[in-house]
Design goal:
There is one protein chain. This protein has about 230 residues and is α+β, with helices and mostly antiparallel strands. It has two domains: about 40-155, no CATH class; about 155-225, no CATH class. It has two helices and 14 strands. The protein has helices spanning about 1-30, 45-50, and strands at about 60-65, 70-75, 85-90, 95-105, 105-115, 120-130, 135-145, 155-165, 170-175, 180-185, 195-200, 200-205, 210-215, 220-225. The strands form four sheets. The protein has a four-stranded antiparallel beta sheet, with no helix packed on it. The chain has a four-stranded antiparallel beta sheet with strand order 8-9-10-11, with no helix packed on it. The protein is flat, with a radius of gyration of 32 Å.
């Protein structure tokens, strides 16, 4: 009878001990289970950490890869935006080149050029919308000139000062080479151009609502273009 009572008394203790063992085994199993797989870094994130970023916006990554003879300008929008090539060159004589002129928001202004020993010359300024991949040509010229003549191409357009806002809106001095006339032009995100003034300007800048410039010692303002 005493033995039976001891057995009855030990049952709860044994059951409790078994419960602790099961719980411990379960915890040990969870602790030793393989950790959840982390999401791999995107190509854009890798580009941002492996090269010097020229962009002013935290969302945009813009880098120049390569050197004088072979290279490219690449850009993307963090965190997982498509990696885009904005310009590239591959010339063993360093006759072709490209450079980042300005960045704002997710937009980049890129100038591409060529110059060779035979008088071949070209320049092109393009606005790139890195998010969508759309491009807007702002100025370009290209021709064969007589070396030492001091002359430029007979047609096309060149640019001087240029400003760019994070919305993609901008303004720039553009010269028509055929007529040798300079105007101040604004451009909208959609690529609509608006003439703001005739002749060269100074102190060109863009605010949140206006394009501002100096001309003949007088400050001028114009609303940002729509469209």
């Amino acid at each position: 009878m005493a033995s039976m009572n001891r057995a009855l008394l030990l049952r709860p203790a044994i059951a409790g001990l078994l419960g602790v063992c099961v719980a411990f085994a379960g915890g040990l199993s969870a602790a030793t289970a393989a950790p959840a797989k982390q999401k791999s870094r995107s190509a854009c994130q890798k580009l941002a950490t492996s090269h010097t970023d020229l962009a002013r916006s935290a969302k945009l990554v813009t880098v120049v890869l390569g050197g004088d003879e072979t290279g490219r300008i690449s850009a993307c929008v963090l965190p997982r935006g498509r990696l885009r090539t904005l310009a590239s060159w591959d010339d063993g004589l360093s006759r072709d080149w490209a450079s980042v002129v300005k960045t704002a928001g997710t937009w980049v202004l890129v100038e591409e050029g060529h110059g060779d020993q035979y008088g071949g010359t070209s320049r092109a300024l393009t606005r790139h919308d890195v998010r969508s991949g759309r491009q807007l040509s702002l100025s370009s010229y290209g021709c064969q000139i007589d070396l030492g003549s001091g002359r430029s191409c007979p047609d096309g357009t060149s640019y001087d000062d240029v400003v760019l806002a994070s919305s993609g809106i901008g303004a720039y001095e553009v010269t028509d080479l055929a007529t040798a006339t300079t105007t101040l032009e604004a451009f909208s995100p959609a690529g609509v151009f608006t003439k703001l003034a005739d002749g060269p300007v100074e102190a060109l800048r863009v605010t949140r609502t206006q394009v501002v410039w100096m001309q003949d010692a007088v400050e001028h303002r114009a609303p940002l273009p729509a469209g």
